[in-house]
Write a structure and sequence with these properties.
It is a single chain. The chain is built from eight helices and ten strands. It is an alpha/beta fold. It folds into two domains: 248 residues, Rossmann fold, CATH 3.40.50.410; 36 residues, no CATH class. Strand 3, helix 3 and strand 4 form a beta-alpha-beta unit.
């Protein structure tokens, strides 16, 4: 990753900035839009006038010939696992690299979670799980996570998100919020993502760069895949090639968005050349509002 001293200074700035953002981030981080998240069964008791009839336990009511209801309480602490892409493509960027943006966003959300006394864990992945730190509370634990992100050198440049998702499916016993930070330039991850979503809340934070959206008109250039090293010569002065490239990128983005929506995966799209605070706050504040609406219609 970038210069260690500079990143440490950046962490201090992020900690201060998160203090401004924390109200909106915490409210959204702490209230899932998905049914069952953060809700724990407490007891069954006799129905009293004024209780919500939708809470009636009909099996117990039939057995005792008297109405009984189920009571639930909202769990006030949560567990977050940040799944961070450290593959070769994360080093790409124009004004700033994806790797740097991912680090800043992870730090900001982790600070918000820790300030709420939530547990925070970390997974670093390429085409394998390179590092796993189980979730714990506290700033000392958080400092260890940040140090790992700064010091760790990726073993592989390739990407396989499915490997990380399958790994989480086996090691996460407690219901968690899984926040994936990546450009999602990986294939065949939809099925393991769908399986993980059955037991956990999943949020996809997709980091992109403007240079990936359109080819500049600069004549013949050699494009290289940062993960495989494969190279191809492209004539960017050909308007047909530039147009087709733009179409393919747009189609890929649209398909990914539809896949996330169909599988109830929260999605935030961030650019390396734009501030991340407003999109994050908008998304997580929206999650809190949607959670409130959902509760009202049940």
């Amino acid at each position: 990753m970038d210069d260690r001293a500079e990143l440490i200074r950046q962490i201090k700035k992020i900690d201060i900035a998160t203090g401004v953002l924390v109200e909106g981030l915490q409210s959204g981080l702490h209230h899932s839009v998905f049914k069952g998240q953060g809700i724990e069964f407490t007891e069954i008791r006799e129905y009293v006038p004024g209780d919500d009839i939708r809470s009636i336990d009909w099996k117990v009511t039939a057995r005792y010939d008297h109405p009984y209801i189920k009571e639930f309480t909202e769990e006030r602490d949560q567990t977050f696992h940040f799944v961070v892409d450290i593959s070769g493509s994360s080093g790409f960027g124009s004004l700033s690299t994806k790797e740097r943006k991912i680090f800043e966003v992870t730090a900001s959300l982790a600070f918000a979670a820790v300030r709420n006394n939530d547990r925070v864990g970390l997974v670093l992945f390429s085409d394998r799980v390179e590092k796993f730190i189980p979730a714990k509370r506290g700033r000392k634990h958080l400092a260890g996570l940040f140090n790992t992100m700064i010091e760790h050198k990726a073993v592989s440049k390739k990407t396989d998100l499915s490997t990380a998702l399958k790994f989480l499916g086996t090691v996460l016993s407690r219901h968690s919020s899984v926040v994936i930070l990546s450009d999602f330039a990986s294939s065949s991850f939809l099925l393991p993502l769908r399986i993980l979503r059955r037991r956990h809340e999943v949020i996809a934070i997709r980091v992109t760069d403007p240079r990936e959206q359109d080819l500049p008109d600069v004549g013949f250039i050699e494009l290289e895949d940062p993960e495989t090293g494969d190279q191809v010569l492209v004539n960017t002065s050909d308007p047909g090639i530039r147009h087709r490239y733009h179409e393919l990128v747009a189609e890929s983005d649209k398909k990914m968005h539809i896949d996330f929506v169909r599988n109830r995966i929260g999605e935030v799209v961030l650019s390396t050349n734009e501030p991340y605070d407003i999109p994050l706050k908008r998304f997580f504040t929206g999650v809190a509002k949607m959670r409130w609406v959902y509760a009202r219609v049940q």
